[in-house]
Amino acid sequence: MIKDKSNGFKFHPKCQKTNLINICFADHLCIVSATYDNSLKAIHGVLKLFGNVTRLHPNLNESSSFFASISTQIEDYLCGLSGIPKAALPVKYLGIPLNTNHLNAVDCRPLVDNIKSRIDGWISKHEG
């Protein structure tokens, strides 16, 4: 539905060849599009329809907008249109930056520390 040309949706230029519009991570969704208000309105319409059908609605308070190569004025306009606040890159998931390069030990340290902390908690809980 979102790829229907009549609704004004435009792919992000780097995603058009693959028809990529979203990336899912467990209960997180990353939607990629060109920065046009028609594209944003099309995405909003599809999310609203999805919510009406499934009763699953995005939490705008826990959502973020990321932009590249557009003016601050346009960013602010699109954030106002969507109700989703602007955030800065790099995007992190589970404490690890999402990037196109290979991850190194420093990138993974927050996740390793989190897992170690949980294991230590389990050990102390079951020892005593």
Describe this structure in words.
The chain is mainly α and 128 residues long. It is built from 3 helices and 4 strands; from the N terminus they run E-E-H-H-E-E-H. A two-stranded antiparallel ribbon has the order 1-2. The chain has a two-stranded antiparallel sheet with strand order 3-4. Strand 3 (92-93) and strand 4 (96-97) form a beta hairpin. It starts with 21 loop residues before the first strand and ends with a helix.
Helix content: 40-55%
Largest sheet: 2 strands, antiparallel
State the helix count: 3
Listing every helix as H and every strand as E from the N terminus to the C terminus, the arrangement reads EEHHEEH
Terminal CA distance: 56 Å
Rounded to an integer in angstroms, the radius of gyration calculated over CA atoms is: 19 Å
Provide mean pLDDT, rounded.
76
What would you call the quaternary organization? Answer: single chain
**Helix/strand-derived class?**
mainly alpha
Sheet-strand content, in percent, reads 5-15%
Widest β-sheet, arrangement of strands: 1-2
Low-confidence stretches: none
Give the tally of β-strands.
4
What is the approximate shape? extended
Organism: Lithospermum erythrorhizon
Protein name: Reverse transcriptase
Q: TL;DR?
A:
The protein has about 130 residues and is mainly alpha-helical. The protein has three helices and four strands.
Helices and strands in order, then pairings?
Layout: E1 22-25, E2 28-31, H1 37-54, H2 72-82, E3 92-93, E4 96-97, H3 105-127
Antiparallel strand pairs: 1-2, 3-4
Features:
128 residues, 4 strands, 3 helices, Reverse transcriptase, mainly alpha
